[in-house]
Design a protein that fits this description.
Largest sheet: 3 strands, antiparallel
Structural class: mainly alpha
Number of domains: 2
CATH superfamily of the largest domain: Ribosomal protein L17
Shape: elongated
Helix content: 55-70%
Strand content: 5-15%
Number of strands: 3
Distance between the termini: 94 Å
CATH class of the largest domain: Alpha Beta
Strand order of the largest sheet: 1-3-2
Oligomer: single chain
CATH architecture of the largest domain: Alpha-Beta Complex
Length: 196
């Protein structure tokens, strides 16, 4: 009989399952939204929602109970302050699972597990067409013309003179390199003739 047995095995041993659920819960509390498989999202929801319910009563005992599962003190503190504060009087149903379709590599059904009060159902990133409209709305301002002072002119003239000198030196170096390459070719041809 399977009376009152809740939660799936998600293909793991008991210790591995416990570690996976704790890691998913920690990531969910930290980022408020995680992308995972549907099976793991459902298992994580069953694990996370009782923790949030316990966090509503802020006592030392409940903090210690939750700290058994969430090993990051900063995230435990955030759960008791930010997350519980935003959830307010909601009587359960703190998370939402949004299906995404199949993963490319192994065709696993993927989903997003998110905290309900942090994201609205319609919250999505703007499409490319929307981004194009935003770019069109931006107005380009004309640049202001600023005249150079005498010292700036002198500095710019010195910089151009140095560039010209460097270019002349490079021009002298390149023919020398070409001569060396030609000599090597002639030497190889001569050595081939001697071998024959």
């Amino acid at each position: 009989m399977r009376h009152r047995v809740k939660g799936g095995k998600i293909g793991r041993t008991a210790s591995h399952r416990k570690a996976t659920l704790r890691a998913l819960a920690t990531a969910l509390f930290k980022h408020k939204k995680i992308k995972t498989t549907i099976a793991k999202a459902r298992a994580a929801r069953e694990f996370v929602e009782p923790l949030i319910t316990k966090a509503k009563s802020d006592t030392v005992h409940t903090r210690r109970q939750i700290a058994q599962h969430i090993n990051d003190k900063a995230i435990v503190k955030e759960l008791f302050t930010d997350i519980v504060e935003k959830i307010g009087d909601r009587p359960g149903g703190y998370t939402r699972i949004v299906k995404l379709g199949q993963r490319q590599g192994d065709a696993s059904e993927m989903a997003i597990l998110e905290l309900v009060d942090f994201f609205e159902i319609g919250d999505k990133q703007p499409r490319k067409a929307d981004k194009a409209e935003v770019k069109e709305e931006t107005v380009v301002e004309d640049a202001q013309v600023v005249e150079e002072t005498e010292t700036e002119k002198k500095v710019s003239e010195e910089a151009t003179d140095e560039k010209e000198k460097n270019e002349e030196v490079k021009a002298e170096v390149v023919p020398a390199e070409e001569k060396v390459a030609e000599q090597k070719e002639e030497d190889t041809k001569d050595s081939e003739k001697e071998i024959k």
